[in-house]
Structure formats: structure tokens, C-alpha cells
Amino acid sequence: MQNEESLVRQAQQRNEQAFAQLYEAYFDKIYRYVALRIGDRMEAEDIAQQVFLNAIQAISSFKWRGIPFSAWLFRIAHNQVVDHLRRKAKRATVPLEESLVASDYDPQLIAEQRLDIEKLLVASRKLTPAQQEVISLRFAGGLPIAQVAKIMGKSEGAVKALQHSAIVALRKVFLVA
Amino acid sequence: MKNSEFENILDECLDRLARGETLEQCLHRYPEQAAQLEPLLRMAQAVSKASAILPRSEFKARARYEFRSALQVEATKKRLPLFSLKRRWAMALMVVSILLLSGGGVAMAASNSMPDSPLYPVKLATEQVQLTLTPSALGKARLCARLTDRRVAEIIHMACKGDVRQTELATERLDGRLVMLAVLVSAEGEEGAPKAMMALPSAPVPAPAPAPSPAPSEEAQVAGGVPAEANGRAELKRLVAYYAANGRLALNTGLGKAPESAKPALRRAIAVSEARYEEILAALD
């Protein structure tokens, strides 16, 4: 991919190819972030697409002020997720499957239990919204901590603390019946 | 150790794991915190792995088409700021106006224009209007298949002129048309969705093996000509197969004529065309 700043500037000039490259570069990451946040892979597809359709409308307002384009895009995604969650009815609590429970405590067993996305979606519902946000941006979105902090409007230290507590909480979810 | 110090170490190790370091390497850097770090890093690795999901391929194909259409509409809006009508119909109105005012002369002239011509946007807009006004998915698919022929001609024209950038742009447009054709085939068909759309080849591809067929003619027409009007899916398949073969022949002919500087771009166009047509014909089976 061309230098991202160059692509973004071209996209702001309505260069379709430049914007298409940005779409290909970020769509899957945005999708993963949304899927993990809302817990629904099908709805996440539509929301991710809406993020980019919104970006087409808003890209002329993007300014290079030390905020990477990815952070701006994920901010749009974050807002879409918040809107979606507000509209949804209160989520039912889904009991964890017994297969998530380790029979004996073993630090390696958790990783080797074939943790798949469905189990992760269920487990992440046990986290606070802020913890879910950090996990989704860091691991699903693949963003560095500095960008996560900008998107969440928190300090890097606060985000690192949330990250730590989120991982600890997820371990507990998989260890405790 | 303060919580914040441990959190910094944890974060640093997460970044290192993301960059490809092993868990053991990370733990080796911080032996005093290893016992506390290890279970957290393993959990994080499991979360990263589980998070590596992708959207459905059939969704992605439709989404790409929708996104590109939205980009085109937005680009049109920028060029036509005075129109407040719905964008599709604003474009249709512009093209119809051109036809009425010019007696069709401008649109006719535009239909043969190439990407470096000032009339080229009119050509694209006219095609878009035709697609918009075609009612059925099958009808749109037939039209789309024919329009790919124009893209191929444009690719060859620009490549023979040595304009690499325009050749690449024309290839992108060809790919866009073929993606649209795949989506229409899926929409029209009885069963399911098109197969996953491959990513475009990003690097220049090696020269294709020489074809065993006779030397291609100037017109590069496939024997048998254009199939009769495609009524139904089987006929659509014959139409698509015709344009696929015709396009392949034309592009390979162009490869023999294009300057060296344009050949990598032309080879990429051949690869894109072959890959997409293969997917579309498989979906039509």
C-alpha cells in the first residue's frame, strides 16, 4: 500500500482507488473489532460496512493532527458500536459451556483449549464495557496502546491498567465454573 | 513492583508477541515477573488467535461493490454540486440531457472514448445509467458482461500507449465490473453466493506461458462470435465464457504490442481477468 498519508489525502480528493485501498487495508480489522464488541458476527458485517460508508461522507473533515487515520476510523466504528448497543435490548446472560472450564488449574491449558471466537464472544460479555473496548481494539483491531488511548479518550496508563484487568478477568471467566 | 510498572511490562510483551517474538523470549527478558506474566500472555495469545475472524466471503463481495458504487456516487456529487436530486437520478438526468441537447452525438462520441479522453466520464456515466435502468439482475449481468469488453479494450489501448498508470486504473475498473458481475450472478442464481473473491494480485506476475493456439488476429475474435441473446443462466454462462475467452485473447495480443514499461501492468490485468472470470464461471455452474 502507498504511504497512508498520501492515500488519505488522495481519498479526500475523492480518488476512488485510494479510498478502495484504505477500505481493503482496514475492513477486516474494523469487522473484528465490531464483532467482538457487539458479540454478533452477522450484524458486525453490516456495521463494519456502515463505518466505511460513513467515512466516505466524513473524510473531508479528517485532519492530520497527530491522530492516525486508523484511530479516526476506529473512532467512527466505536460510535457505531455505541449506537448499536444503545438500540439493542438488554442482552441476556448466556451461561458458559462446561467445556470452557478447566478441570485442573493449568496455565497452558487455557490457551490449548481451542478457544474459538464463539467462546470468546460469550466470555467477553462478562467484562466491563471499558475492558471489552480495550480487548477489542488491541487484539481484534490490532491497534497499539497509544491509538487505543486516543480512541477511548483515556491516558495510556489508564488503558494499560484496563488491558491488564481485562486479561485477568478473561482468565477468571475460563477458570471458574 | 508497582502495578503500573507491571502493566508497562505486560504491554511491552504484548507488542513483542505481536511483532513475532516468542513467549519464551518475552519471559526471558523479565525473569522476575515471568510467573505472573506467563498466564496473562498465554491468555492474550489465545484471544488474538480467536479474534482472527473474517467476514463471510459472499458478504465481502457485495460490500466491495456497494462501497465502490458509493465512492462513484460521491465523486459524481463533487462534480455536480448544483444537483439536489438523488445522486443516481442526477447522473441519469445529466446523461439524458446530453443526449437530448446533442442529438446523441456526444454520448455516441463518448462511447468510443478512452480513459485519457475528456469524454471518458460521460462514457462511464452512460454505462451507469444503462445499468441503473436495466430492471432485472439477469439483464444487468448480461450488460455487465458486455461492458467488460470495453474495459479490456481500454486496458490494451492505454498499455500500448505506454501509460502504466491509466492501464492500472483501467484494470481496477475491469475488476470492479467483474466483481459486480459476480454479485449479480449470485443475486440472479437459485443457489447461494459467489465463492470468495480473491484479493487482486499485488505484484507484477511472471509472463504467462506461450499459448499453443494459432497467432491471434488483429480483431481477436473468438470463433463463433457473440452468443445469441442470453435467456437464462445457461445462456448467461455462454455469454460470460465468450467474453472471458475474447478478453484473454485480446489482452495477450496486446501484450505482444505494448512497450516493455507497460507489460507488467498488462500481465496483472490478464491475471485479474482470468482469476475473476474463473470464479464467475464456477458460480454459474
What report would you give on this structure?
The complex is a heterodimer of chains A (177) and B (285). Chain A is mainly alpha-helical and 177 residues long. Helices cover 69% and strands 0% of the residues of chain A. Chain A folds into two domains: 1-95, Rna Polymerase Sigma Factor, Chain: A (Orthogonal Bundle), CATH 1.10.1740; 99-177, Winged helix-like DNA-binding domain superfamily/Winged helix DNA-binding domain (Arc Repressor Mutant, subunit A, Orthogonal Bundle). Mean pLDDT of chain A is 83; it is low at 91-107 and 109-113. Chain B is mainly alpha-helical and 285 residues long. Chain B contains eleven helices and no strands. Chain B has helices at residues 3-18, 23-29, 34-51, 57-79, 87-102, 105-111, 120-133, 137-160, 164-188, 233-257, 263-284. Chain B is elongated and about 80 Å long. Chains A and B meet through helix 2, helix 3, helix 5, helix 6 and helix 7 of A and helix 1, helix 3 and helix 4 of B.
Q: Which descriptors apply to this entry?
A:
heterodimer; A: 177 residues; Arc Repressor Mutant, subunit A; 2 domains; B: 285 residues; mainly alpha
Q: What's the topology here?
A:
The complex is a heterodimer of chains A (177) and B (285).
Chain A: H1 4-12, H2 16-38, H3 41-58, H4 69-87, H5 107-112, H6 117-124, H7 129-140, H8 145-152, H9 156-175
Chain B: H1 3-18, H2 23-29, H3 34-51, H4 57-79, H5 87-102, H6 105-111, H7 120-133, H8 137-160, H9 164-188, H10 233-257, H11 263-284
